[in-house]
Amino acid sequence: METALAKPAVVTRAEPLGKREQTKLQNRELILAAARQVFAELGFGATTVRDIIRATPLASGTFYNYFKSKEEVYQAIQDDVALAIRPRLREERIKAKTVEEFISSTFRTFMDFVADDQVNFRTIRHTADTTRVRLDTPEVIAGFEELREDIEKAINEGVFPPIDADFLMAAIVGVAFEVGERMILRERRDPAAAATFATALLLGGIRTLPHVAHPAARTGTA
Questions:
Q1: N or C: less crowded end of the chain, CB within 10 Å?
Q2: Residue 104, domain member (yes or no)
Q3: What is the average per-residue pLDDT within 200-220?
Q4: Domain limits at 125?
Q5: Measured in whole angstroms, how far is the alpha carbon of residue 37 from the centre of its chain?
Q6: For the chain, what is the domain count?
Q7: Are 152 and 168 in contact (CB under 8 A)?
């Protein structure tokens, strides 16, 4: 009886981008990089689309193939930042076995990211503080929801006491952004010191919070 030869495993590879797709990506990145610099120099309110276009080697018509306004450019910058940091944050939170690990790993990862990506962070914070441009972009909202979900999961698993997940999510986000901003404004930037301070502040507060009935406990769901 003949033995059938095993067929070699088929290895699938992502198809390389064509020239057209590469050009699209490059043009988009040129626009975003120029916008970051112009927003940082002029401020969001004073910046015009023409200012952004002048900071690129692209024709004005090319800009409008990608974005309709400076607001759309800003929102794209926000989403890019959120997409870059979200997987790192979630990976650290999932590994946490204690309240201390959950909080400290969140702040440490965030402060390291801010220190390494100061241009993006300053662009977002400066614009948010001086304008009414939308902050609720899809990726940013998804990042906040992931944090809330991870807190609720930690509550259900007994890592956290039964506290208000929405309020804690808001507190972590607020402390992270405000302390991160102060850190990059200092002459000597120390992400480890910033993370340690934020962690101590939150941990000291968590232990004094009133416990509440968790929604899952009230409904009897896991």
A1: N
A2: yes
A3: 68
A4: 74-210
A5: 19
A6: 1
A7: no
Give the type of residue at 84.
Answer: A
53: tokens are 């276009």
Inform me whether the pLDDT recorded for 163 exceeds 70: yes
Q: Measuring CA to CA, which residue among 89, 81, 87, 80 is closest to residue 172?
A: 89
Average pLDDT over all residues of the chain: 82
State percent of the chain over pLDDT 70.
77
Q: Which of 139, 132, 148, 155 is nearest to 71 (CA)?
A: 132
Residue 105 placed within a domain: yes
- Let me know if residue 157 belongs to a domain: yes
For residue 97, what are the contacts with CB-CB under 8 A and spacing of at least 6? 159
Is-contact 10 1, C-beta < 8 A? no
What is the value of pTM for the model shown?
A: 0.72
Residue 132 has what pLDDT?
A: 46
How many C-beta neighbours within 10 Å does residue 151 have? 23
Nearest to 122 by CA among 195, 16, 41: 41
